[in-house]
Design a protein that fits this description.
alpha/beta; Spore Coat Polysaccharide Biosynthesis Protein SpsA, Chain A; 2 domains; 11 helices; 47% helix; 12% strand; disordered C terminus
Length: 334
């Protein structure tokens, strides 16, 4: 990339009291700011139009509430329409994300080290303990599930919404398939792994004031569990059977076979012996146990391979944003 014009997408829903301060703190290195009013009942977009004179700011209005993911994708589409926007940063409008950190997020992309950068509030333990306990618990559980579904084992804090993405990579994503609600951060990473994009964590402090989150972290664990499982199955199928076959593919198949068969065989013989009030033969127990142990060892080998299989070559250095047409459905600016 010859130029690194930075565009910032700010989705807005119930953040009227914070949005003006967020926009005021945008640095001079930011070329364009897209404020996306996601049918906000507080009229945040209209407030920005009335109070903000910064020529870099554009206000987009969604006719209906699309959710945070839908609002971000709307901003991405608008940013991709301007070729000068080479890196797209997303921050929330509630004041929890400091715009002064934008240079830190775009640096790995500028240097050719990554395609996508995201915040991680768990680097500094002093900052971690400032977070509400319930958020810590919820984030840890969701991050653990996300590692399986996205394949990015080396990162953490998957629900962190402070992100930066290279234009060339964003243009290769199908925005229509990305989750439009609060699952979109994890779903975005899943789809980035499918195209083998390099993702890095950026240390940042957790900031909490009088803002109220619209997401219940603990309540989301159950709702997101099915989506994580579905993405994990799709990712493994795409990566280890559809696009490539390796020893890891064989490890997974044999591991599942031996583990499942050992459990079924052992359970059946144990139940049969219990009904007949007979002791289970030692040989049968050893055979079932051996199959389960071998199966688990093979599964552990597969996941060890999967952990080491994270993308390492930045995609945006190998492709051009013109290789794929821009997603349709862009709405007009207000």
């Amino acid at each position: 990339m010859s130029e690194y014009g930075i565009a910032v997408v700010v989705p807005c829903f119930r953040c009227r009291s914070h949005i003006l301060d967020v926009l005021q703190r945008m640095g001079q290195d930011v070329r364009r700011v897209y404020v996306v009013d996601d049918c906000c009942p507080e009229g945040t977009g209209r407030l920005v139009q009335e109070k903000v004179s910064d020529p870099r700011v554009r206000v987009l209005f969604n006719e209906k509430n699309l959710g945070v993911g839908g609002a971000v994708m709307r901003g991405y589409r608008a940013a991709l329409e301007e070729p000068e926007n080479r890196i797209i940063v997303k921050i929330d409008g509630d004041g929890q994300m400091d715009p002064a950190l934008i240079p830190r997020f775009v640096a790995p992309i500028r240097r050719g080290m990554a395609d996508y950068a995201k915040g991680n509030r768990f680097y500094d333990l002093d900052h971690v303990f400032r977070m509400p306990k319930i958020r810590i618990f919820g984030n840890v559980v969701l991050s653990f599930l996300s590692k399986f579904s996205t394949g990015y084992w080396q990162i953490f804090d998957f629900t962190n919404g402070y992100t930066a993405i290279a234009r060339e990579v964003a243009s290769h994503l199908d925005f229509k398939k990305i989750d439009k609600r609060y699952f979109f951060e994890s779903d975005m990473l899943f789809r980035l792994n499918i195209i083998r994009a390099v993702v890095v964590d950026i240390p940042m402090a957790a900031r909490y004031g009088d803002e109220k989150s619209n997401l219940s972290i603990v309540g989301s664990v159950g709702r997101f569990l099915f989506k994580h499982c579905a993405n994990m199955v799709k990712r493994i199928f795409y990566s280890y059977f559809l696009r490539d076959l390796s020893l890891a593919s064989l490890e997974l198949l044999l591991g599942l076979f031996f583990t499942v068969w050992g459990c079924l065989f052992g359970g059946f013989t144990w139940w049969n012996a219990l009904e007949q009030q007979l002791a289970t033969p030692a040989g049968t127990a050893i055979l079932a146990g051996t199959m389960i142990i071998v199966g688990l060892q093979l599964l552990l080998g597969f996941f060890a391979y999967d952990m080491a299989n994270a993308p390492t070559h930045p995609l945006h250095l190998l492709c051009d944003d013109r290789d794929k047409p821009l997603s349709s459905g862009n709405a007009k600016q207000a």
